[in-house]
Amino acid sequence: MTDTAPTRAGFVALIGEPNAGKSTLTNRMVGAKVSIVTHKVQTTRARIRGVAMEGASQLIFVDTPGLFKPRRRLDRAMVKAAWGGAADADITVLLVEAHRGMTDGVRAILDGLADLPRGTTVALAINKIDRVEAPRLLALTQALNEAYAFAETFMISAEKGHGVVQLRKWLAQAVPEGPWLYPEDQIADLPMRMIAAEMTREKLTLRLHQELPYQLTVETEAWQERDDGSARIDQVIYVSRDGHKGIVLGHKGETIKSVSQAARADIEEFLGRKVHLFLQVKLRENWLEEAERYSEMGLDFKDGN
User: Fold this and answer.
1) Nearest 5 degrees, angle CA 180-CA 116-CA 181?
2) Region (G2): which ranges (predicted)?
3) Is residue 50 part of an annotated ligand binding site?
4) pTM here?
5) According to the annotation, is 130 in a ligand binding site?
6) In the predicted model, what is the mean pLDDT of the chain?
7) Is residue 35 part of an annotated ligand binding site?
């Protein structure tokens, strides 16, 4: 921070289709793993905020669930949360995958942008630019800007970091002047209990692939600080069918052991200290219809109606 530059702070909503790279971009901007990143679509449920500093500006990234056609209560709550995040933000950034181009889903999002509050600043970030040739990229850029009057367009690769610095510098100048909203060294406003649960759910999603994509959730049931500086974390994995318990546990408990080890390593890296992680698997047939489960994920149960 300099003596001459005024402080700025603002919320930046990242929206786009599932798997467009919103979580990867959040983590790249913040410089830490605060948002679940997997190859599965629709893995981000809560509006996870990552806080990044750029000069005298504080950027609070709202990593929304992907926008898609909802089929059930959880889907509807996720989509409502995504548009709510965009409506509440100072700046909205639409991420479009370069190699997928102008899909039906992107067209639906472009239509939805018209419903944002008047005066909302919306920028375009074409992601995964390393996957297409320049002529195709330019044609997509032109088509998207003809469909909506974006304030600015950026060509990026969230995974490799290309163009991310330019986007962050532009955002730093575009957010409103004002005091910082979080301490300078804070990188996320989610409770650590929720971040730890998300890290375990990420490992489950990666390990189980197609078997149980969205039929489970993870909650941190207890968190005990120990005298030696370590933490004991007890988490519950809720599944919606009895047969799913065996899949999560795996042969002789191999799956849950592997998940526990990988999740513990991520949590320890994030906290910078030793963690003792204990996982249980419980059947909760109707968790997708329980308001309490939605609250744990940072979603509004009523939005699923």
Assistant:
1) 10
2) 42-46
3) no
4) 0.63
5) yes
6) 81
7) no
What pLDDT is attached to residue 42? 46
Which two structure tokens, joined as six digits, stand for 195? 């971040």
Q: Which domains does the chain have, with CATH numbers?
A: 8-174 (3.40.50.300), 192-304 (3.30.300.20)
- Res. 271 pLDDT band, cuts 50 70 90: confident
229 assigned ligand-binding residue: no
User: Per residue in 118-162, pLDDT tens?
Assistant: 888 999 999 999 999 999 999 999 999 999 999 999 999 999 999
Instruction: Please check if 119 is assigned to a binding site.
Output: no
Q: How confident is the model at residue 186 (pLDDT cuts 50, 70, 90)?
A: low
- Residue type at 107 in one-letter notation: R
**Where do we find the tokens 């940072």?**
298
- Beta 153-155 vs 121-127: how paired, if at all? parallel
> Of the candidates 38, 9, 10, 1, which has an alpha carbon nearest to the alpha carbon of residue 22?
38
Q: What is the pLDDT of residues 72-113, one digit of tens each?
A: 665 566 556 655 666 678 898 999 999 999 999 899 889 888
Q: Is 15 marked within a binding site? A: no
If you ran DSSP here, which 8-state letter would residue 240 be given? S
The residues near 74 (Cβ < 8 Å, ≥ 6 apart) are: 45, 214, 288, 294, 299, 304
- Binding site annotation covers 213? no
Residue-wise over 262-298: b if at least 16 C-beta within 10 A, else e? bbbebbbebeeeebebebebeeeeebbeeeebbebbb
pLDDT of residue 88: 72
Predicted pLDDT at 15: 85
